[in-house]
Write a structure and sequence with these properties.
265 residues, mainly beta, Jelly Rolls, 18-stranded mixed beta sheet, two-stranded antiparallel sheet, 20 strands
Amino acid sequence: MISIVLLLAPAVLVAADPPAESTAAPPAEKAADLLDDYSLVWFDDFEGDSLDTDKWRYRTGPRLGSVQCPENVSIADGKLRIALKKERSGDLNHTAGGVISKKALRYGYYEARFKMPRDRGWHSSFFLCISPTPAIPILREIDICEQNSGFLHYTVNAHEIVVQGTDKSLRSIGVIRNGTRTFRRVPTPDLSADFHTWGAEFTPEHVKFFFDGSLVSTADMTDMKHGDFNIWLTSVARRTVDDSNLPAYMLFDWVRYYRKRTDTK
């Protein structure tokens, strides 16, 4: 009889590989989280059948490729409508429009929901501005959204324009890209296909820019003189306009300003 002996190798315990460290970017900061500390103190939902002129004045006069006209601004279906037209006015071939808040505001969270025109040639904006005066010849802007129609991006910025006579010098503040203080370009879907929401938290230290509730850029504001800003909602023609589908419209659903509950100013 033949005996068969089975030799069993000792068991070998092999440690599992440690879990790989996540390389995913942390989730973007959300506007909804910071709004827990804020209260709504000023807004316009654009109800009724005409612009609330207790809250707004019209943007008027020539700018870039159009003349801005009060008659191009209307309220309908709960929207502020800025008509963009091919029509001669002065030396220009197009008219557009905009509104500027009469109330000037400072630190807080600013937000608006709007829809861009589709065809190329229009520069549409939601921004905060301190206009220059003879005593202080400096224009200061916080650009929550500047967008050239037909492109899949918009820009944010914070800057000053120093005006001395006919000379102008531009200095961008705080928005760092490739080591340079300049604007930030934010990629987007087609902004003429639907409404989107833009926001900005303005504090003594920074401006945080949000798109559809998510943080997209931050600007250091410690090297810019602060003040009380008016809100601008506007669209103007650029130098070359696609006229094939005019008139077109820039549509604003609402605009809001929130102040921190601890800020009593």
